[in-house]
Amino acid sequence: MSEFDSNPFADPVDVNPFQDASVTQATSGISERIGEFNPFSATEMGNRSDTTIPISSVSSQPAILQTSVEQSAQATAAAAQVNLIKQQEELERKAAELDRKEQDLKNRTAGRANTGAKENNWPPIPKVFPVKPCFYQDFEEEIPEEFRRICKRMYYLWMFHSATLFLNVLACLAYFTADSQYGVDFGLSILWFILFTPVSFICWYRPVYRAFRSDSSFSFFFFFFVFFFQVAVYIIQTVGIPKWGNSGWIASISMIGRNLAVSVVMMVVAGFFTVNAVLAVILLKMVHSKYRRTGASFTKAQQEFSQGVLTNRTFQTAAASAATSAVQGTFVSSD
Fold first, then answer.
1. pLDDT (average), residues 271-277
2. Using an 8 Å Cβ cutoff, are 18 and 24 in contact?
3. Across 210-217, average pLDDT
């Protein structure tokens, strides 16, 4: 009833909505929190970190890039491993092929030595001649492929050597016709051609052929010993000392004032001797490089020599005869 008794025309009382108890309590709590708020404090930073975007989602792109790099590195390593496996298989195949060829060569050599099935084919003499070939020679069958080229070059050098000696006979003949006092050169040139052609074949070409055929250390050392003197002979023939049977540079130059045509012929032969000397030095170096790769040594050469001597029937017969004679002489002296 009090509400009806009040004067409606009186001035209204100023009502402050913020003086309400519930509103005052709510605003006072917010003010306290605002006053205590510090955006740079550790607590607030920790609270804010809960609402930030995770770092894993931000750095997702570098992680994908790193995975691709690792995959490419693994692919490269796998390709390299496959390549190495292929190379190893290729090397094993080549080694097996070389072993097979070496075994076949040994079998053919042993079979030919035991049965004598292979007929000699060098020198290539017609069958109508009473003289038969003395040697068997086949580069494709007996010489391994890695030594075949150098062995053929040594054979060509021997052929060039023989042709030079023959031309030297003709040059010395011209030398003799120009001046009769040089008849000794013509005679010696014939001797050198008849002697050095077969001797060079037997003493240095056949040893190097046997060395490459059977990997013989003794044949290598014998070849080096003889061929060194052959190089020295080439140098002497190139110099051309008068009355030594060689149409070298000294002898050919000395004939320029007497007979120019003879001098030119002799100079050509002197050039041939020079080429022989140069090729001999080059091939000697090449054979030595091949020899170092074969594993030959002086010890192996001694063993091969001792085994060859002890297994030689002629040596065994001579040793048995000498021992028998010594024993008989001992018994006779004791009687």
1. 97
2. yes
3. 87
